[in-house]
Design brief:
mainly beta, Leucine-rich repeat, LRR (right-handed beta-alpha superhelix), 13-stranded mixed sheet, 2 helices, elongated
Length: 354
């Protein structure tokens, strides 16, 4: 009787197993099997790169709970929620490992001597609400990955050496209240996308190398109180849409190359206290509507090409303390009602009306 043929080996099962082994080997080779860094490991990396030798950080590396380490706050689960290392003589570069602090809500590294670029890994901090890196020596571009910080409310990168363009992705965090990028080396145009930041109250872009025109979309920022665009290379006309900013208290457009007429719509800014339009190339007459903002304290129009007579409506500015009209082509006289209330006045070659 013939022997039964031997059974074929389970080739399919072996193939699946072999494939799984290959995939596991590949993952291990790429480091994909590594566990994410613990908060303690991240802080120790921070100590090695930025805090070495600083006496305030002797607690770092001890067996004490992380919440007892200098400048560290933790939540009920022991995870790091705040790093407050402001004005602590920190130096070196910001380690990208900080992007592993998944529970971090506030990161204060301002007023130190930090250098190098802002690591794009900070865009992984999904719970971050405050990012304060001001007053350092940071350089390079602003990472567009910061636009991934959906919960961000405050972004302060001012007083550094940042360059390149403002990434339009900074318009993504819908809860952003403060965006401060002043005193850097930023160039290019102001992204019109910033006009979609419905909750923004402070927009500070002064003292950079920004060019192009002021986007009219900024007139959509209904909650804006401070708009500082001065000391740049902005050109074109002042958009009349800025007159829609009903909550604006300070408008700083000085030291640019703005031209055209002063929009009468600026007279709609009922809460305006400071209006700085000096050192531009503005022409035409002073609109009488500038006499409308009852709270206006400072009005700077010096070093322009304004002409015509001073509108008598300026005499209605009962809160005005500073008026600078120097170096224009203005004629007529300044309303006599301002004579006794102005604390600082440069009227050029003009006099008060009788």
């Amino acid at each position: 009787m013939p022997k039964p043929a031997p059974k074929s080996p389970p080739r399919l099962s072996l193939s699946i197993c072999a494939l799984a082994l290959i995939l596991l080997a590949a993952i291990a080779a790429c480091g994909g099997g590594d566990s994410p860094m613990t908060d303690r490991e991240v802080l120790m990396t921070l100590k090695e790169t930025m805090l070495e030798g600083l006496s305030d950080y002797q607690s770092w590396g001890s067996d004490s709970p992380l919440g007892e380490w200098h400048g560290v706050t933790t939540g009920s689960n022991g995870r790091v929620t705040e790093l407050y290392l402001r004005d602590n003589q920190l130096s070196g570069e910001i380690p990208p490992e900080l992007g592993n602090l998944a529970n971090l809500k506030t990161l204060y590294l301002g007023e130190n001597q930090l250098s190098g670029e802002i690591p794009p890994e900070l865009g992984n901090l999904a719970n971050l609400e405050v990012l304060y890196l001001s007053y350092n020596q940071l350089s390079g571009n602003i990472p567009p990955e910061l636009g991934n910080l959906a919960n961000l409310k405050t972004l302060r990168l001012d007083d550094n050496q940042l360059s390149g363009e403002i990434p339009p992705e900074l318009s993504n965090p819908a809860n952003l209240v403060e965006l401060s990028l002043g005193y850097n080396r930023l160039s290019g145009e102001i992204p019109p996308e910033l006009g979609s930041l419905a909750n923004l109250e402070t927009l500070l872009l002064y003292s950079n190398q920004l060019s192009g025109e002021i986007p009219p979309e900024l007139g959509n920022l209904a909650n804006l109180t401070l708009l500082y665009l001065g000391s740049n290379q902005l050109s074109g006309e002042i958009p009349p849409e800025l007159g829609n900013l009903a909550n604006l208290t300070e408008l700083y457009l000085s030291y640019n190359q703005l031209s055209g007429k002063i929009p009468p719509e600026l007279g709609n800014l009922a809460n305006l206290k400071t209006l700085l339009l000096d050192d531009n190339e503005l022409s035409g007459k002073i609109p009488p509507e500038l006499g409308n903002p009852a709270n206006l304290i400072e009005l700077y129009l010096r070093y322009n090409q304004l002409s015509g007579e001073i509108p008598p409506e300026l005499g209605s500015l009962t809160s005005l303390k500073v008026l600078d009209l120097y170096e224009n082509n203005l004629t007529g006289c300044v309303p006599a009602t301002l004579r006794g209330q102005l604390e600082d006045a440069d009227l050029g070659n003009l006099n008060y009306c009788p």
